[in-house]
Amino acid sequence: MAQNLPSGAGPVAQVTGWVRVVLDVPLPGPFDYRCDEFVTPGMRVIVPFGRRKMIGMVIDLPETPAYDPVLIKNVEVVLTDVDPMPAHWLRFARFAADYYQRPLGEVILPALPMALRSVAAYQGKRSGGGPVARLDQRSPPVVAAVQASEPPALNEAQQLAVDAMTGATGFQAFLLHGVTGSGKTEVYLHAAAHTLARGRRVLMLVPEINLTPQFEQALRARLEPVAGQGGVAVLHSALSDGERLRAWLRVQRGQARVVLGTRLAIFAPISDLGLLVVDEEHDPSYKQQDGLRYSARDLAVWRAHDLNIPVVLGSATPSLESWVHAERGTYRRLPLPARARDVTLPTVRLVDTRRLSMEHGMSPYLLDAMHKRLANGEQVLVFLNRRGYAPALHCASCGWVSQCPRCTTFTVLHRMTGGRHQLHCHHCGYQQRVPSACPDCGDQDLRPMGRGTQRIEEHLAELFPQARVARIDADSTRKKGSAQALFASVHAGEVDILVGTQMVAKGHDFANLGLVGVLNADAMLFSQDFRAPERLFAQLMQVAGRAGRHAGHGEVIVQTGYPEQPVYQALLRHDYAGFARHSMQERESATLPPYSHQALLTAEARELNVALGFLQSARDAALALLVRDRTEELITLYDPVPLRIVRVDNMCRAQLLLEATHRPALQSLLRQWLAAMHDNPDVRRVRWQLEVDPLEI
Ligand code: ADP
Ligand code: ZN
Ligand code: ZN
Question: Which of 329, 323, 322, 310 lies closest to 161 in space, CA to CA?
């Protein structure tokens, strides 16, 4: 007999014999159960599955079950502590499952807070009505009231952009193309306030929240007066399970009128949505890299279309995908061509490292500029996208280089607290003591090869003994709250030289930073990935955009051995449009995205041959489907190839790329292909996954 748990009463619908349920299991599903209680789609149920009990979600109430009723088990508990998930949300989850070719249960359940999908949270002594009731009994944490702030008067370009957004009557995708410091945040805030005033809600996605607490502060200061105290909910992956449940419930119950979050917040069950914003829409962190490999930006556009509301994609360096939409007129471009604070964009200079003798990897030109800025009381940012002390350790006499025993990569030299060094693998986490002598020839003269942020920090401290040097990268910010504390000290003027990886490039409005030095940008120049130049350009524009934001006269010095490369030439002129034009021509002539659509099948196995064999059989199967359907013309199947770093954690990796000029043909092939994947003779010997619209190839 099923029994309801005590709870707030949700809307209940009809009595039915059968319910169709999705579960977070790697089986196609859905699964049918018998249920003699009131249920509606969108409600959670506890059901037996194999020998376990699991929480699933009802997605349908079929008239007849899909298999023999005798075999069908009963729903054990109908959970009513949370209102049923709304129809628009279920529709959205269904689309994501279809588009990314995943079972619906693997989309729906991971989108819920942990406690709402864990049977354990509803069992045992501590049950007491379940996690929601327990949370409601506790008093909510006191949210410090944020001082309301007055908006600045918008400039003309900002006003035009806001007017366009607030004037939209239904679905419209806007590409807010604003140079760094052009005041995109103001535009979002005005459009959001307008949406709230009309009684609708707002969902705003940002790439990172931890790094930019000021953004959350600004948003709350401006929107809480309209949305009400506590009307802004924040959702991101660094929240504890409890914090996440609390924020999520405020959204689900309609108490939050603004949701600010990272990519996972695209699955927030917010109703009456009137505006969707994706800030820094080009940022790779919108792409989920495991499980359901979705793009939150692409899903945002679909969700806005489905709800018939405007969506704003903002960036100084839009993704080529979005730019091409704007060129074709399917997205409406809204330019913010100048900085909002009446200051010019920084001057960019390229320093040709082939012609200069360097001091610890830094040119005399850069060091000289640093001295001047520091003497002038300004801050300097040194950007190097490589953490650790040195990318490897090597033996000068025999050429030995430190290598990970589990991966085909070098191990990175790190300086640990206390000053001793260790070798770390950035791919599998392997750690090792530094050998006292070369394992190959016994020579004791082992040296660091190249430079990482730690080593640069050390050099800078020697070269600028008066300056306060700080480093921000994944290593210096491991402890919760440490990134915020470090950034706060930079904003407070307690740091003179900041050394950092791309963590420092994102979104910060530094008031007193005059100079940005970029070391070793070339590392990304010759990658195999066709998106590498686009990514490098975006990263350089972002980090360059940190200079001179308030006082003007900013300067960016880029050290490169290839100053003639188009990406550097475009950077010199702050010429996104020119760079985009150049890249679009390249992509179009090679029929690469956005002029084609891709899917990537990846396989891992202990032996490379097994992974390649699996992919070859998969390729044969795909080809057979294409021949049968006469769609060979529409889809290109490439040959299986090993990944550049072929072995990681003792697993060998290979991939198979599919490319299509026609998206529906690709989607239809993928569906049939996946359904038949278990026929692949090697399927049990590999771990495989399929990615639609892969970002990295
Ligand atoms: P972006 O996100 O486009 O790089 P921000 O939103 O950080 O730029 O804005 C850059 C700076 O300009 C911020 O210090 C912001 O307060 C300021 N600002 C924005 N709009 C205006 C305006 N209309 N008048 C004056 N200052 C503004
Ligand atoms: Zn040696
Ligand atoms: Zn490794």
Answer: 310
* Residue closest to 346 by CA, chosen among 380, 321, 374, 319: 380
Residues 463 and 545 in one domain: yes
C-alpha atoms less than 13 angstroms from C-alpha of 62 in its C-beta half-sphere: 14
Question: Is residue 11 in a domain?
Answer: no
* Amino acid sitting at position 662: H
Which residues make up the environment of ion ligand 2, defined by Cβ < 5 Å?
395, 398, 400, 438, 440-441, 443
Separation of CA 502 and ligand 3 centre (Å)? 22
Q: Cβ contacts of residue 190 below 8 Å, gap of 6+?
A: 151, 154, 158, 162, 166
Low-confidence residues of the chain: pLDDT under 50: 1-12
Coil, strand or helix: which one is 162?
helix
Q: How far away, in angstroms, is 147 Cα from ligand 1 center?
A: 19
Q: Tell me if 420 is assigned to some domain.
A: no
Q: What is the pLDDT of residues 407-442, one digit of tens each?
A: 999 999 999 988 899 999 999 999 999 999 999 999
User: How many domains does the structure of the chain reveal?
Assistant: 4
pLDDT of residue 16: 56
- The Å distance, Cα 394 to ligand 2 centre, comes to 8
3-state secondary structure of 199: coil
Residue at 442 is within a domain: no
Least Cα distance to 279 among 195, 208, 182 occurs for 208
For 638, the domain range is 597-692
Token pair, residue 131, equals: 């996690």
| CATH code, domain with 673 | 3.30.70.600
Say whether both 355 and 503 belong to one domain.
yes
541 and 649 together in one domain: no
Instruction: Match 């908006």 to its residue by tokens.
Output: 151
- Closest CA to ligand 1's atom 6: 183
Which amino acid, one-letter code, is at 322?
S
What distance in Å separates the CA atoms of residue 253 and residue 84, rounded to the nearest whole number?
10
Last residue of a domain, one of 303, 336, 369: 336
- The structure's pTM equals 0.94
Report the distance separating Cα 182 and Cα 312, nearest Å.
16
